[in-house]
């Protein structure tokens, strides 16, 4: 049986590169000057997507510069019927163009190879975009997703081959929301498998060089709660984990939180009221360093879940002070070095005659400061920029003189 002509063009369309996701524009919903709930270190500007309909639209991943979306809309859809749990048609995968302003348009079926008459869930891609992880649930048990992967046939225009169900799947529990780390070594997902702290927990499994998965590891009680925790997504630098949770004192339903990957500072922080509401916010994802999408079922939306795009600006603050001795007298020509939480040097300065230093720091980060000066003990201090309403932090760095050995000769 020949492939329908429409299918060929749809798959080709999803493979052709679109303009790079760039600056957002449009009418800004200006954030409040002070949002006490927002402890993310980011200031968000949120825009409604023009592709929203009476059906659900949920962002999932980026493939070949196109946004892959999970939606219940039917554009010549496969099969029919209504999911009794969502009261909507069963989900399919779509790809959308992203223009130079970050807006999406032209939703078309992503792949008639992957889209089936069953319920398609979230997807993820390896860094080289040759491997796809995807979830699917049968119509008769549409809330129980299983995890699959497929491979892009070499030199093909969207021909996914060697589809296989992964061994961590089990009909007794659901595996959802896959996300591959940007170095391709880890697969994050949510599941209600045995051993979870609540309903759904977040897990990570190492991806071996041969493509096999190690046993999944629960992300632990600092991240997971006795409620549902879903939709993991890493920042581009791999240092922060964004996810949706009904716990962690959310405003209502699912809120989006951010947590550091570092073991000692995993406490999740809310993204604030410009993103979260009394309704459900899910599927938060970055598409560039500072732009991305999420979905929400806010009551003013068009459908069950609508898609929103955002611009996230880093909130910068100032760390300032002077270097002094035990008598609080300034010590000029001191070398002051600022390090991030992982010990990487960010910046160094040499103080002038007034011994003053000044660093630009990101809000809600941890740093360390070292001071080097001949004749004085090496000084090291830790600093946290964890004040929501702070603009300038003042830190006096006091050095101790080295005690010279006294000769008895």
Describe this structure in words.
The chain has one helix at about 5-15, and strands at about 40-50, 55-65, 65-70, 80-85, 90, 90-100, 105-110, 120-125, 130-135, 145-150, 160-165, 175-180, 185-190, 200-205, 215-220, 230-235, 240-245, 255-260, 270, 280-285, 290-295, 305-315, 315-325, 335-340, 345-350, 355-360, 365-370, 380-385, 390-395, 395-400. The strands form 8 sheets. The protein has a 4-stranded antiparallel beta sheet with strand order 1-22-21-20, with no helix packed on it. The model is unreliable at about 1-15, about 15-30 and about 405-409 (pLDDT under 50). About 5% of the residues lie in helices and about 40% in strands. The longest helix is centred in the first third of the chain and has 11 residues, at about 5-15. It contains 1 helix and 30 strands. The protein folds into 2 domains: about 5-315, Neuraminidase (6 Propeller); about 315-400, Carboxypeptidase-like, regulatory domain (Immunoglobulin-like). It starts with a helix and ends in an 11-residue tail after the last strand. The protein is mainly beta and about 400 residues long.
Outline the secondary-structure elements:
Elements: H1 5-15, E1 42-48, E2 57-63, E3 66-71, E4 82-83, E5 88-89, E6 92-98, E7 104-109, E8 119-125, E9 131-137, E10 146-152, E11 160-165, E12 175-180, E13 186-191, E14 201-206, E15 217-218, E16 229-234, E17 240-245, E18 255-260, E19 269-270, E20 281-286, E21 291-296, E22 306-314, E23 316-324, E24 335-340, E25 345-350, E26 356-362, E27 366-372, E28 379-384, E29 392-394, E30 397-398
Parallel strand pairs: 23-29, 23-30
Antiparallel strand pairs: 1-22, 2-3, 3-6, 4-5, 6-7, 8-9, 9-10, 10-11, 12-13, 13-14, 14-15, 16-17, 17-18, 18-19, 20-21, 21-22, 23-26, 24-25, 24-27, 27-28
């Amino acid at each position: 049986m020949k492939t329908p002509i429409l299918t060929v063009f749809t798959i080709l369309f999803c493979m052709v590169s679109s303009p790079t996701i760039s600056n957002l524009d449009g009418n800004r919903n200006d954030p409040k000057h002070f949002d006490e709930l927002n402890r993310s270190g980011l200031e968000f500007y949120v825009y409604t997507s023009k592709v929203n309909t009476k059906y659900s639209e949920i962002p999932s991943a980026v493939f070949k510069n196109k946004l892959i979306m999970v939606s219940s809309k039917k554009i010549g859809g496969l099969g029919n019927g209504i999911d009794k749990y969502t009261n909507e048609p069963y989900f399919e995968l779509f790809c959308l163009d992203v223009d130079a302003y970050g807006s999406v348009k032209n939703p078309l079926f992503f792949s008639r190879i992957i889209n089936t008459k069953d319920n398609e869930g979230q997807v993820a891609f390896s860094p080289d975009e040759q491997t796809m992880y995807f979830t699917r649930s049968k119509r008769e048990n549409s809330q129980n997703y299983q995890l699959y992967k497929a491979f892009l046939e070499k030199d093909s225009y969207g021909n996914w081959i060697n589809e296989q169900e992964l061994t961590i799947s089990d009909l007794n529990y659901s595996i959802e929301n896959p996300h591959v780390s940007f170095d391709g070594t880890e697969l994050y997902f949510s599941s209600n498998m045995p051993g979870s702290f609540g309903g759904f927990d977040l897990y990570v499994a190492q991806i071996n060089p041969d493509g096999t998965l190690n046993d999944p590891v629960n992300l632990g009680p600092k991240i997971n709660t006795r409620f549902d925790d879903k939709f993991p997504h890493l920042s581009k630098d791999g240092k922060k984990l964004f996810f949706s949770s009904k716990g962690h004192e959310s405003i209502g339903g699912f809120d989006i939180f951010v947590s550091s990957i570092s073991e000692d500072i995993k406490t999740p922080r809310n993204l604030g009221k410009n993103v979260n509401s009394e309704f459900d916010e899910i599927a938060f994802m970055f598409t560039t360093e500072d732009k991305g999408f999420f979905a929400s079922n806010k009551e003013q939306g068009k459908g069950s879940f609508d898609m929103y795009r955002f611009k996230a600006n880093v909130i910068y603050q100032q760390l300032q002070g002077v270097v002094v001795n035990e008598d609080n007298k300034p010590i000029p020509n001191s070398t002051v070095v600022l390090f991030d939480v992982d010990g990487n040097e960010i910046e160094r300065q040499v103080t002038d005659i007034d011994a003053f230093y000044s660093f630009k720091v990101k809000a809600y980060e941890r740093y360390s400061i070292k001071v080097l000066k001949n004749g004085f003990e090496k000084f090291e201090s830790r600093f946290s920029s964890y004040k929501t309403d702070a603009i300038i932090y003042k830190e006096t760095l006091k050095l101790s003189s080295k005690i010279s050995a006294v000769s008895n000769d």
